[in-house]
Amino acid sequence: GDLVTVLFHLGEMATATESLDEATFEVLGEELGYRIQIVSPEDEDRELLEGFSIDLDQEAEDEGDDVLEIRPPVVTVMGHVDHGKTRLLDAIRNANVVEGEAGGITQHIGAYQVWHEHEGIERAITFIDTPGHEAFTAMRARGAQVTDIAILVVAADDGIMPQTVEALNHAQAANVPIVVAVNKVDKEDANPSKVRAQLTEYGLVAEEFGGDTMFVDVSARNNLNIDSLIEAVLLTADAGLDLRANPNKEARGIAIEAKLDKGRGAVATVLIQSGTLRVGDPIVAGTAYGRVRAMLDENGQVVTEAEPSRPVQVQGLSSVPRAGDTFIVTEEDRTARQIAEKREAVERNASLAKSRKRISLEDFTRALEEGKVESLNLIIKGDVSGAVEALEESLLKIDVDDSVQLRIIHRGVGAITESDVNLATVDNAIIIGFNVRPDTKARERAAREGVDVRFYSVIYGALEDIENSLKGMLKPEF
Ligand code: GDP
Q: What are the Tr-type G domain coordinates in residue numbering (predicted)?
């Protein structure tokens, strides 16, 4: 409120819930004699963690080639609805179940790993098994990028559809290379070359046409060419991505899925991005914290250690983190809890600022009854000065008991303007319009800020409402 008042006097119309540009902050700092430092949300988290001697930049700074080891690529499957994303994810998973592997039961934990022999070397690939770009984008919106490569599934009988374009736009915006799976080639009306032709318009040019995007014709239904698709993913990873991480430190990564389990409490699938996660590690994920009590893989098997790119389901958290929350391992349990609490406080403040509503006359009556307010602030605007004065005079004559006070913080002649609304937001005032209306901007801002603007054409009407309100008798309007 105080800052808004200063801004108001500087001629800057702002409200307490509004974002300001950097220049305005500079002006504000100048005026108040402060040095302004602009901090991004990432910086803020970094700063928060610094208090606990956890350095997110450590990775970039002191990790040379000697400590970095190759990690598996993380792949998301995207594409239009019904083009076969789910079926393809099943096919990939089933194609790679090693015969006779100690009979685990397939679990949906949000991601899985498969192994593939590539040039004589067994390599792992991690698949996020929530298909579609919605989850991908939701995580990105939270600042988390887990995907290294996107498989764009296009049904060969259907061709490019709206969500195909959407998906490729999202992948391209995130700078994630795309491998195209031309699916359903078993179908009679399949036309894989048409898919290739269509996609050139979106900058995805097949290798056979001189481009650098790999296209693989597959049939998820018949398990056709699934191996070639995985091969293409690995080739794409090796061609342009430097997928390495240091496994020899405390783990860090991202929660990709989480839920409350009746028996096991909060369970979260995390993807390790660097370091190694072990049972017993103190961990904080978003605002959830705890000690890793147990870890399971996608086959329901117990895991004691998880290295970079490995998805594991973790038990032992205090609450359910959100998809896209980062997790870190701390040295002590206490630190994990403190970080979680600090983050929670930051979030609480942010949501409080968002939900803070302006007072309306009805609220005022209620607040009065609950003993929460002492003064009713009014702004009076009218068409002629005589009317404004008369209204003000009568209002101030209202006989109320000593516990409440009526304050007229501003009065004037003319339409209700944006600056009237601004003032109302600063001082939590109600605006009385006597034979005047707000202009468009003022109306929009009042609606946005929840400022109560009331219109009257007879003094008595205004008097009655205010008096009733001050006496705690105003009936809500419907
Ligand atoms: P999603 O919405 O992209 O996840 O698509 P689904 O995996 O649910 O597949 C949609 C439909 O297409 C289902 O009926 C699948 O059985 C079918 N389908 C998926 N892949 C193939 C394929 O390769 N060939 C044929 N003929 N049908 C397929």
A: 70-244
